Amino acid sequence: SHLHIFRKSIEEVIRFAAEERLFILADEVYQSCVYADDTEFYSYKKVLSEMGSTISSTVELASFNSVSKGFMGECGLRGGYVELVNLDPAVKEYARRLFSTRSCPPVVGQMALDLMANPPRPGDPSFPTFSEVSSIKNMICKNTDRIQEVFAELPGISCQPLKAGFFVFPCLHFPPKAIKWKRQMEPDMLYCLHLLEETGLHVRPGCEYGQRKDSHHIRFNIMEDALQRLKTFHTRFMKEFS
C-alpha cells in the first residue's frame, strides 16, 4: 500500500543515517495538511522510536514545524519550533541558548504558534471562532478535485494528484514558439513573468528547483482565486504562442 511505502522510505533514510552517522533534519511543516484518503502523516520521531533500541537511541534528529506554512499557509505569521532527539545534552543546551538569543519571532507569531501547538478546546471562549477557521482550512484542503478538473480542461498542462500541502507543481507542455524563447530565458520563467504582469499572480518557475532537462513546471498555490486567474491566463498564453 501507499502507506507502507511512505513508512518504508522513512525507515530507509533512518538506517542510512545510522550507518553513515548522519544528523537528520526533518522538515515536517505540512504535517497537519495531509488530506488524501490513502495518505497520512508519518513522524520521523515516531518511526525512529519503533526501529529498535540500537537505532532509536543513537540517530540524531531535528524535527521542524511552523505556523507559517503548517496551519493555514499564512507566511505572514512567522513562528516555528524544532524538536531535538538524541542530541548530546551539552550540544542541546548550546542550541537552546543560541535559539533564545538570536531567534525571536514577533509576538503575534508566537501567539499563533502556541495556538497551533495547543488549540482551543470545546468550552473555551475562542473555540467557535477556531472551528470556523479550521473549516476554512478543510475547505481549502478538499479543493483538490477542483484543481484536477481545471488542469484536465486546460491544454498543455498536467499535474499529479494532490495529496498534501498547499502547493502543486504542474508540468507545462509549451508550444514550439514559446520554447524558442529559451535563447533569452527559460520558458517557464517567461510564463511566470507574463502571468505576473497580466494577472498579478506570483508563482515560481520550475527552472529554480532543479527540474529535469527539457521539462517545464510552475510552483503554484491551490487557492481558488489563484486557480481561476491561472486558468484565464493559461488559455490566452497558449493561444498566443501556438
Automatic annotation (TrEMBL):
Q: What class of enzyme is it?
A: transferase
Catalytic activity reads: L-alanine + 2-oxoglutarate = pyruvate + L-glutamate
Among InterPro entries, the record links this protein to: ALAT1/2-like, Aminotransferase_I/II_large, PyrdxlP-dep_Trfase, PyrdxlP-dep_Trfase_major, PyrdxlP-dep_Trfase_small
- Which classification does the entry list for the species? Eukaryota, Metazoa, Chordata, Craniata, Vertebrata
Which co-factor is required? Answer: pyridoxal 5'-phosphate
What name goes with this protein? alanine transaminase
**What GO molecular function annotation could you give as one example from this UniProt entry?**
L-alanine:2-oxoglutarate aminotransferase activity
* Protein family (similarity comment): Belongs to the class-I pyridoxal-phosphate-dependent aminotransferase family. Alanine aminotransferase subfamily.
Say yes or no: keyword Transferase present: yes
